Amino acid sequence: MYAHPKLRDFENRMEALFREVDMRLEDRWGDAFARHPNRPRRGETDNPAMDGLFETAADFTAGIGSERGRGYIVSLRVATLERVPPERFEAFMEEAAETLRELLPRYFPERKLEVVRDGPRFKIIGDFSLGSI
Q1: How is the chain split into domains, by residue range?
Q2: Quick check: pTM over 0.85?
Q3: Alpha-carbon distance 115 to 87, whole Å?
């Protein structure tokens, strides 16, 4: 399937952004819980979301029924068989959101993007336009 070069560029930068968020979480909290036995150790794959304790991603939503509209839901998974207390998971989510707020201007300096709470989740909202084609 063909994707416009501007869309590919946007998606590549978003993927790089979330790789950095994942790596920062791993640096700080990678030993907080025992990694799932089927999950590769950190650095064993070429994608940080596929190894180590954390998996972070951005999932686009049209925002139907959302207070904040369309945007990218911040997805976070802790790959462990241990019970992660809700308050600990929330702390991980807060840290991921803060890291995104810090990094967004570096990865997308030409856009006005922000990280907001949308119900129980965090979401990246703002200018997702591709400009003139």
Answers
A1: 5-126
A2: yes
A3: 20
Shortest CA distance to 74 belongs to which of 32, 124, 28, 127?
Answer: 124
Beta bridge partners of 115: 124
Cβ atoms 56, 95 nearer than 8 A: no
Given a cut of 70, whether residue 95 has pLDDT beyond it is yes
Q: State the Cα angle at 91 between 104 and 26, rounded to 5°.
A: 65
Distances (CA, A) of 130 to 3, 59, 66, 78, 110: 12, 18, 23, 33, 11
**At what angle are helices 5-29 and 86-107 packed, to 10 degrees?**
140
Confidence of residue 47 (pLDDT cuts 50, 70, 90): confident
- Residue ranges of the alpha helices (H) in the chain? 5-29, 86-107
